[in-house]
Amino acid sequence: MSVPVQIAKRHDIEDLVRGVLPGRDVQVAWTWRGVGGAATSRRGRCVLQLSDETLHDANLAAYVAVHEAGHLALGHVQHRARTVAIYLCSLAACLVVATALLTAATGAPGVALVPLALLAWVGLQRPLLARLKQPQEYAADHFAAAHGHPLTPRIAAMMWTPRSRRERFVVWLFPTHPSWDRRVAQLGDATVHHSGN
Questions:
Q1: 0.70 exceeded by the pTM?
Q2: Quick check: is 151 in a domain?
Q3: Is residue 91, in this structure, part of any structural domain at all?
Q4: Among 82, 113, 134, 156, which residue has the fewest nearby CB atoms (within 10 Å)?
């Protein structure tokens, strides 16, 4: 016998967000497409973009909202400009090095090596993004769990929606988030470790 799923209301989720971010000027915008959300900061105001699709399951909606609030509480939004700068600098470095190497080796214009430089950049930026961004996702998951809304295997299954071939390629190319399986396992390991102390 299955347990009926509770539906969430927008105002309940907005109150939940304000409860985990006391004293912060937070605007919740229901504009996100698909199941998920995003956290940003605009002119000093915290903005969470959430999806109406999450409201079909109160546990899912609470997890997504508190996870995104965690990004704001933990200061991840402020580091975004630095991450973008590092990401673009790595692209520039690959292009400069490739151009210099080709010019020095053959005397040919370095522009001919741009495709190879782009491949080198893809190879470099994937572990770079994983190193810079994925720990933030784990931290936001722990924030959600600490506030009573943990990522569960059931929620992870709902978050992993079928994707188009283009979306799968973008996720592979820009690995800003760990896999849902790894996130659930990491959260579970931390819970076991914490309860053992």
A1: yes
A2: yes
A3: no
A4: 82
